[in-house]
Records
---
Amino acid sequence: MGTVLTIRGLSFSYDGRRKILDGLDLDLSAGETLAIMGYSGSGKTTLLKIIAGLLYPYQGTVKTHDAKGGIGYIPQNIGLVKNLTAVQNVAHGALGRIGTLPGLIGKFPQEVFEKAYQLLEDLGLAEAADRKAGQLSGGERQRVAVARALMQNPSILLADEFVSDLDVINAYEVMELTTKICRRNNIALIMTMHDTYLVNKFADRVAVLKDGKIMNEMPGNQISIKTLSAILGGGPVE
Amino acid sequence: MVPPNPEVAAEAATALAETIQIAFVGTVLGFVFALPFSALAMRNIFPQILTTVVRAFFGFVRTIPVLFWAVFFVIAVGLGPLAGTLAIAVYTFGYLSKIYYEAFEATDPEILDAIRVTKAPRILILRHAIIPESMNTIISQLLFMFEYNIRSSTVLGFVGAGGIGLLMISYIESLQYSSLTTALLFTLLTVVAIDLLSGYLRKQFIPGFIQKPK
């Protein structure tokens, strides 16, 4: 598996005083599923936004290798256009490559919608494809957001606490589908998470973020609440 | 003033139709220009230097009352409905632009983030995310503006900008108060009808209204 992302010495501050990220280093391999854990406010969302190219300026280097399809991003609160249908929201993932004029007159290439319907089908949402996003359930909206990000043909998919608002069954299903599709297509997945059970089940690797740095990395199936609290609290790691 | 003079009903109806035309065309023209220009005032999309200039221009347009715009266009293009239509269009442009850029700026930033990562041009983010997300405000404010402009267009006739106002002022000057009552009654009925129509359109096109099961 080749490396798709290399981060070295990444530091970032919103106000120029308090550093949210402070000399962070991280590597990511193609097809790998990495969970980032840490307290709320520890900089997990900031890190994802910097990787996505949404936040700057920062110190250090963030280098993507072989990211031909770019980086897909699923925001914490999903960010769907409620007045548009599920399939129209998914087609938004192709807005960067269809050209300005066709985009302005709303003439998407046929293959964009074919792929959008296919992605929704893969995520178990074929029946909801033509329903407005505002009428979908939480779990359905989450899947639409995953499909929209996959529409970019990304090499890296960033998911910011994307199942945190779902019930346990829906959260499990969305995680299972997303990680399965990512592994099948060799897409590296970085997800910020709080749920140690889901991380245990689906992540290849866990990185724990504290004080703007990665404090500890371990295989996904080794994380537990006890381990996590020991790392975050500074106590002994079992 | 009582009873109303039924003999001027046809004349009043024709003048009122002109007033509605002035309000309708003026509202549509103002809307067509307000929609793209208001986007240029969005601070979360365009650079501050551009948004400041555009906002200052909107402020200037909005500061001048519609009656003054009517006087300006009567001088510029002469007496008649064209002056009224242009006055309504400019006022609508100033008002809707401000309402729209404020609605556009309130778009959930996560929608913008999710589409920005696709490297879509700003104009496509506006076209496919911001405008659809703000559609409820766009439609409801457009309907409100049309209602408001029907009333404004009536007054514009007083300064020679066409419509039923021009007829009313001629009745006042010739002391035909019964005819004036007829014109006022026609105007009242039209405003009530437009209010009802606008309420119906809101229920049909704006989500959030509870529809009775069929």
---
Amino acid sequence: MQVDQGNRQLTFEARLSRNSETIDSVLGSSVDVQKREFMLCGKPDHKGICYFLDGMVDSQAIDGILRALVVLGNELNLDPASLRSADAIRTRLMYSASAKLCGDASDGVQGIVSGDTLVLVDGLEEGILVSTRGWKDRGIEEPSSENNVRGPRDGFTESIRSNTAHIRRRIKDPKLRFDSMIVGTRTKTDINIAYIEDLVKEGLVDEVTRRLGDIKIDAILESGYIEELIEDAPLSPFNTVQSTERPDKVAAALLEGRVAIFVDNTPVVLIVPTYFWQFIQAPDDYYDRYWVGSFFRIIRYVAFFISLLLPSVYVMLVSFHHEMIPTSLALTIASGREVVPFPVLLEALLMELAFELMREAGLRMPKPIGQAVSIVGSLIIGQAAVQAGLVSPFMVIVVAITGISSFAIPSYTSSLAIRLFRFPILIASGLFGLLGFATMFFALLLHALSIRSFGEPYLAPASPYRHSEQRDMVFRLPIWMMDKRPQFAQDTQREGDRQMPRPGKGKS
Amino acid sequence: MTKLRISNGMFISMIVNMIFVKSIGVTQGTLARIAGQDMWLATLLGTLQGMLFMYVAYLVMKRAPGMNFLAIGEALLGNWLGKIVALVVLTFFIASSGPIMITFVYHLQDYFLPEAPLSLFLVSSLLVGALGCFYGLEVVARLALLGMLFIFLLNVLIIIGSTQEFDIRNLLPVLEQGFPSAAEASLHYDADCAMAIMMAAIVMPFVNNADKHGGKVGMTGLAATGMVTLIWALLEGAVLSAEVTSRYTVSCMKLARNAHIGDFMQRYEMIMIALYSIPVLFEIMICIYGTSVSMSKLFGMRSNRWMIVPACLLIGGFSYRIVGDHFRAMQYLEKVWPYIAVPIAFGLPVVMLGLAVILRGRLRQAG
């Protein structure tokens, strides 16, 4: 399926000069537009032109086209007059794997700017669009933001076709589908919607297609654009669309009946629908043994709560409810805070902001300098601030643990959302103690409960509670127990009965 | 738009959340004042009575699936009865805001934030309640499901922290003050059950297969509440003794303060109060929801959303008046509230059932 936005309809004529003018008028005198004239079968009275963009094409493919058009016809002693249609040229002369007829100049131009080569021959009212895309790609690397210890190391790249091939390699199911769309009136960005036809949630593909089709925008430069334009809760800091650079994650999502959205020129693929808890799950959970997977998943849940709540709880206890702190601990905290001139809320805010500043600076700077900034910031400034009496040692520990915990959340984008939520809870706790903490926390909880991701409640399967999906929620149960897909999938049975290994007694 | 549906599990959770906080927070103290160490028996009796009237409420709604009490009233005798029922429901929910706010405010203000003004507690709780109502009943129901988890954790914590001081002799002899005294005390637990029954009167039509399983689910909810509350009744009686329990407005806090795990965790009542917050805020949400639904019926509006703010103002004003004075609050809690709650929540379903039986033709026509 092709959705074309905003192109004028320009048809080819039988005169090459007119067609060439038409293409020139649209593409202009851009330096990378290449026009290569040729003579069909080497005959001077049958002229033709190849249009392509330098840098976007595989030059060997162009050579092959020209060889076919000029040399091959000559060697075969073909009379150009016998090749009366573009289709005859395509079928009798050309040996490119992908070549199609093109009667519309706007389609031809679209092909050229996408890296294809448009072949025009005098006297023919159609052109031939040959796939010659071949630019320099980044090689396949391990995704830097989604590391794992055990499991595949390959990650998506900026080439949409390489990315879809990653999935094909993993799911050799003929029911795997990739629907194509073009979004962006100027960038004409290729979008692929991937799903498994007999598993995908009913109506989901139509809904995704509708939302993508509704996008009216000039440019899509990254999948983040798409994410913001199709998400269910556009005003919410929660991300209701999962993004990943890992092909194994996308394959697993497709096998659960979800839809993946591939966007050209970005390694980040979107997955819908998404539950909040997915952001706390990591691929290693499934590749390591289930005991280990469950243990580290629980650690991540703890990290999530620490990341969200620890500074708020500390501020609330120290500011309002110190009687709740065990006496020996309270004395230690008090001795550390004795010389600190700031109220604990201000101290926490300053430290949190300083931490975010260091994180941001470390991220933006060149890698070697970034590491230096992190070390200088965390060790030297932290130590100096404590010695100067600006912050208490306990606060440094709290902020450091909070920061480390936020990095333990596998989804970087989600950990950013949690960082944002930390501040309103912190401020409310610092101003109103337990009342502020409870009020703000439950307001956020209500908000999370209210949102959906493509029809699925965001906090499912916790609330609404779905019994069968608990096997992959807090704990990661053994693979042989996870026999069901999420209940929105068309076919929920994923395993045969009695998959638990039972070695026969007395047999080798 | 997704059609509003509440699962049976959610409905059970809603019932538990609706009753639990007040019944362990302030009702146990009242029961101890009347029935002494038989407060657990009064809780049990109240549970059974509540289950009976929940079933009566179900019998009414079974005759008109998809309709709440307000709509059934209108279907039976026209618009005027619908409005009278709405007025009764409105009165109930505004009146119920008193004990709910007493529970919420006294737990937090008396034990954690004594210098904070009353208005702060009322405004913050009503804001969260209004937000929940704005998001809709399904979101509130999902919150109740999480609230159930919190209640479970709260009970685990109190059991861990209190069992070492559990003394069964404090609960003996049984029926020392006689059965009539326990039965009289159960009226106060009935008032707690009344809130769940009236919630069911407006919420049950949205429950999955309510016409088939509504009664069973409703009674299961009340039985579950009875069980989780009974833990507190037994612990308060056995650990604190009935005499000590009877001296406190918020007796559960005395028990919570008493609880400790080893020498290091001498006090952890704040964790328990944090866990307690979801159910209490849920109660406030349902109170606002019930008030706004009945107000929208009274004013002939299709959606209750426009009535959320006026409902909050009414509830806020009434609660401010009741909660502001401890003596007035206790008078209202023990002398007024049960006599509003029980007649309405037990009487209205009976009256509606009678009318539904007599005028079943009209109900069938409306259905």
